[in-house]
Structure prediction request, 207 residues.
Amino acid sequence: MLAAALVSCRQHPVLPPLPQRRLANDAELAIYRLLAESTYVRSTGRPVAVVSYSIDSACAGAACAPLAERWGVDAPWWASVADTQRARSANAALLRHAGDTIDLHAIGQGHEQILPIETREIPVAESDAGMWGEFQYYHRGAAGLLRFSPVGFSASGREAVVFARWDCGPACGHTVVTALRADSSATWRIADMLLLSSRRPTSPTGN
Prediction:
């Protein structure tokens, strides 16, 4: 009996679900465009580059906090007392799909100030001001670049949460998590936003 069970286990291994690779749907594109336009294009007055595939959630090493903490969805911080369950549902959905690869190439369609770029075009971590200047030169003076996570939707589909990383120079950028709600006409609006980390240039005095 035991031998038969072991053979059965070998023949039918239990595998975790594979990450999906798919095109962003209409609701996701609407959310990505809203954040790119209202938060970055409008505030900088310049085009914004958006990486065409969702951000990689991988992080190795002892310094890496759990993903829920890194992406700001370890608690329903954006929920009122009445919708805590919906917030938890959206947070959980984001974590379930964190490893998926979402194709955002369509984000630039009809939006002259949003420039989809390939992963290979991202400035490397060690890029200096000159390299960033070159990046801007080849991307219509883009103020910086955005990388988005997949979107986590609540069970109702009317609440959503998404993580974003903004890079705008060798010592310029931040990470945020944004909660959104759909109104009666299915138009998305930003409900709340939490700054998770920020990088600023160091002053000559080191302060």
